[in-house]
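Query structure, 345 tokens:
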């Protein structure tokens, strides 16, 4: 048996099959909430998403077959490249919905913030593994600086949703890195005391309005809370088994859920309405098998008013293009650890 065939057979097929099932379901969900639109741009969304999935699947296989230990020398260049991309985004990025978060390089358009999260996780993991004897306080300070640099650049875009992702990412990495809990609790309490200052002096008015709408959706039900209320109505109207695939006269079809953001930010509302509680539960089980990311919690949470609206896509499901590549790249790393688990370090 050749080494390549041995690696192919040794892959974690539970991850592969679940990943592909979610990605294909995402294409179906995107089609179901865009086919009725008149604009040509909506008609091509599911095709473009399918193309990104095919391309990302190739990346997944390559990363899975490569020994994951390349991270030891590849993490730092990847992290530095993501910082360069973030700076370029601030200078020449495309402005969309008030945030300059998209970067064009030739025919490719992507969000460097997504690459920064993955490279940040890799470099923090490498640092914590290489400097175990270091005092916990110095570890936290160094990791905070590693995460803080890209987070600050992302906040300057301004992209609050992608910035918030860094909070649970950093605390998870520090927890896994065995930082004593008393240090983590202390930092968490300090951050909590600073939140009112951030709200009043750092957030823009529309960001403040989103948080107010999250706390009390009835305060501005026709304004900032409109999208949240309509997504909850759409999900609730799906009931136990949903209204059915391409159901007529749905909240999504009638445009009550913002049609410009349904394929990405509010895709879970379309799924809940058409597939109901059962379909939503199956989707969550799939994410559970893949060990759902904070993106999953944040996206679904904002659709059911457990989190403020932040514009974070649902992994593998939302129409997101380059984000599919980032997610499959990450899953490829996980699969690579599984494939090469029996090899000596």
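Result returned for the query:
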């Amino acid at each position: 048996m050749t080494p390549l065939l041995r690696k192919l057979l040794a892959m974690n097929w539970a991850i592969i099959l679940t990943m592909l099932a979610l990605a294909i379901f995402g294409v179906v969900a995107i089609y179901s909430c865009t086919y009725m639109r008149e604009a040509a741009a909506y008609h091509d969304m599911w095709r473009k998403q399918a193309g990104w999935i095919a391309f990302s699947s190739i990346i997944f296989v390559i990363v899975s077959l490569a020994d994951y230990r390349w991270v030891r020398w590849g993490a730092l260049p990847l992290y530095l490249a993501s910082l360069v991309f973030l700076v370029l985004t601030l200078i020449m990025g495309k402005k969309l919905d008030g945030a300059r978060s998209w970067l064009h390089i030739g025919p490719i358009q992507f969000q460097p913030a997504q690459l920064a999260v993955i490279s940040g996780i890799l470099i923090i993991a490498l640092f914590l593994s290489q400097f175990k004897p270091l005092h916990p306080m110095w570890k936290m300070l160094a990791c905070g600086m590693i995460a803080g640099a890209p987070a600050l650049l992302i906040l300057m875009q301004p992209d609050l949703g992608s910035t918030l992702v860094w909070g649970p990412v950093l605390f998870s990495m520090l927890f896994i890195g065995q930082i004593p809990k008393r240090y983590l609790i202390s930092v968490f309490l300090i951050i909590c005391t600073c939140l009112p200052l951030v709200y009043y002096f750092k957030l823009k008015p529309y960001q403040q309005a989103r948080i107010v709408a999250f706390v009390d959706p009835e305060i501005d039900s026709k304004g900032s809370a409109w999208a949240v209320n309509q997504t909850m109505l759409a999900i609730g109207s799906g009931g136990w088994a949903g209204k059915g695939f391409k159901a007529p006269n749905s909240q999504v079809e009638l445009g009550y859920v913002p049609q410009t953001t349904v394929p990405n930010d509010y895709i879970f509302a379309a799924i809940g309405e058409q597939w109901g509680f059962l379909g939503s539960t199956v989707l969550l089980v799939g994410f559970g098998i893949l060990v759902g990311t904070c993106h999953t919690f944040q996206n679904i949470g904002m659709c059911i008013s457990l989190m403020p609206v932040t514009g974070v896509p649902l992994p593998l499901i939302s129409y997101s293009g380059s984000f599919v590549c980032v997610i499959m790249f990450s899953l490829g790393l996980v699969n690579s650890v599984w494939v090469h688990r029996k090899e000596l370090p």
